[in-house]
């Protein structure tokens, strides 16, 4: 029916809203409606926030993230460390050993070179701590008022061990759901810094590389069935996405989900739900029930996994994917955020 | 002598100027003074605009570019096609077969989704034409006035054939210098679109993938000693950088450098030197003198190489690298641009 005389009503499609960048339902719609049809179905297996490539006899993970966090420097980190660790964590979530990063800088005219130097130094330190090299990059400058100091886009390559197959497809009824620590600190730290809220004690970002704990799990023979770092959209969005993709029902015990008193108090003050607040050093892992105890032991051995906890399980119920949280008040069905709870959090 | 009581005078370092994004001497200083010391010396062999990685028994090329061109759509292309082809060309300049791309989008609140769809479609078409997949991506949104519609950062991975070793180190006295076509069209097309100059006939960007002609050269056994796409800074900057890195003297015959009458006229009007104007579908190749004729034959067989020409040679003179252009008026020594001739050209 369509032809040159029946143009699509593209002018009616609207404009970009802040929620399109929130990592929730609006972002998903943009990707599904605009980008995927335009780029065609990728022949390689698509992963959340990454792709797997078979190259030269090995399997590579390949991922990218753009970082527009504001403020550029915040308690517990800065855009530079975030740009390195965020991409390293995406590789780790594919089960990959991070190898190399690229970094593209979009600088605003008038940005202080002293601050750029601090941010670059932070990137270097973060990369060295993880054992990854920043091997290539690019720099562009836009006029005053067309940027916001600096935006950084990193891409990363990692090597996936032969035996690893991580993803929603590997999730099975009976699997247990683990998180690597208390939730919501990154988002609250950013909001507090942005709004000038002086929480006492101050909330620091949880920004941390998840690669070492994932590597140790894999080395110990505990191949997680699915891994996800709990960034934009937080724990709740990650669980809903995985349940939907895996077509399983998750039962989460609300009282087992670790949230610090400081984050809980700040979230109430800001009208936020900590389960939806972004983290930058927290993961959820789906493992076989028999692996739960040794996996928790490994996570807790790492400084950034000391607060690891088992929070739920994959139920035996059939049917379409959904996430049920068991609370004192009864069962709550979790949804994706429709827009963006916290803009420019990463 | 330095210590905690002797802080560096970082506050005196100044601010980002437009020229820091121009690809000339200011950009080079930023990379050398700020980024490289912060990131540490990369253990892999650094290449211009790309890095080589040895992974799983093969050699990979890895590169990234951020694109901030304005206007977003211009005669002969748009930011989407540019983001795909620009990164593919960087891979081709490493002698690599492009495999996969990532794409990070920084969208400004209020940007028309219809235009984003056009740009995404253009990316898809460009990728399909080159035979490369866009396999992973990310989307962020910034507030109105903190962006300019859309910025795109692509990264790319390519596979380098075992026999290929391309770079300034392979340049030898006696090598000839080839270009793949007439110069300066991309920069002039952008400037004309931006300034509303209606050249007749209109100048279209030379935007084109250089990967097919490079692949054919390599398949024919003509391994170029050095390749460079002539983007920001144009022919002159590329030649100066290669001469400096290779520590050789280049003699360029000015009358042999192809520039169309339209570009020459527009350049005079705009006060630009076409040798410094950006291209997005032109390369310079250094090949052994014996390979000059077959290499030119191969380049000219491609639509985007029809205007290929031999423009000079590597002289036998010793000493530090420099580029001499032989003109009617005598010898001219070429320099890097100190700032940015044309802002936001790519």
Descriptive notes:
- With 346 residues, the first copy, chain A, is an alpha+beta fold.
- The first copy, chain A, has two domains: 45-160, PurM-like, N-terminal domain (60s Ribosomal Protein L30, Chain: A, 2-Layer Sandwich); 168-333, PurM-like C-terminal domain (Phosphoribosyl-aminoimidazole Synthetase, Chain A, domain 2, Alpha-Beta Complex).
- Helix content of chain A is 29%, strand content 26%.
- Chain A has helices at 25-39, 79-93, 113-130, 185-195, 211-219, 234-246, 261-270, 292-301; strands spanning 46-47, 50-55, 58-67, 73-74, 77-78, 97-108, 133-142, 150-160, 176-179, 226-229, 249-253, 283-287, 309-314, 322-327, 330-333.
- In chain A, the strands form three sheets. In chain A, strands 10-12-9-13-11-14-15 form a seven-stranded mixed beta sheet, with helices on both faces. In chain A, strands 1-2-3-8-6-7 form a six-stranded mixed beta sheet, with helices on one face.
- The longest helix of chain A has 18 residues, at 113-130.
- The first copy, chain A, is globular and about 60 Å long.
- The N and C termini of chain A lie far apart (43 Å).
- The model of chain A is unreliable at 1-11 and 43-47 (pLDDT under 50).
- Chains A and B meet through helix 1, strand 1, strand 2, strand 3 and strand 6 of A and helix 1, strand 1, strand 2, strand 3 and strand 6 of B.
Features:
homodimer; 346 residues; alpha+beta; Phosphoribosyl-aminoimidazole Synthetase, Chain A, domain 2; six-stranded mixed beta sheet; 15 strands
